[in-house]
Design a protein that fits this description.
This protein has one domain (about 5-104). It is mainly α. The chain has four helices and no strands.
Length: about 100
């Protein structure tokens, strides 16, 4: 294994560790009871379905995925109704589609 390979593996591990930490933070969206709980759970599911699952499937690089999850979480917390989250998730999807297309 070359020095460059060792560096790439270390960078991938660091990015994967960051993604794991950020994903754990997304669980904080689920809180309270009643409508607050429903909104948080809905936002959690949207982020899981639209960002975390594609990241785990390899459709996003770990560093980009960690940033995307963090942005989605912050957006969800700032806008409980989910309008801004919808725009953020659409932007993340468009960015990941452009990256996939550029890689092909």
């Amino acid at each position: 294994m070359s020095f460059e390979d060792v560096i790439r593996v270390a960078q991938a591990k660091t990015a994967a560790d960051r993604l794991l930490r950020v994903c754990r933070e997304v669980a904080r969206l689920i809180k309270g009871y009643g409508d607050t709980h429903k909104r948080g759970l809905g936002n959690y599911r949207r982020i899981t379905d639209e960002v975390i699952a594609p990241a785990l499937a390899g459709k996003l690089a770990p560093r980009a995925a960690a940033d995307a999850v963090a942005n989605a979480r912050v957006t969800a917390l700032a806008d409980p109704e989910g309008e801004t989250l919808s725009r953020t998730l659409a932007s993340i999807a468009a960015s990941s589609a452009m990256l996939r297309h550029a890689a092909e």
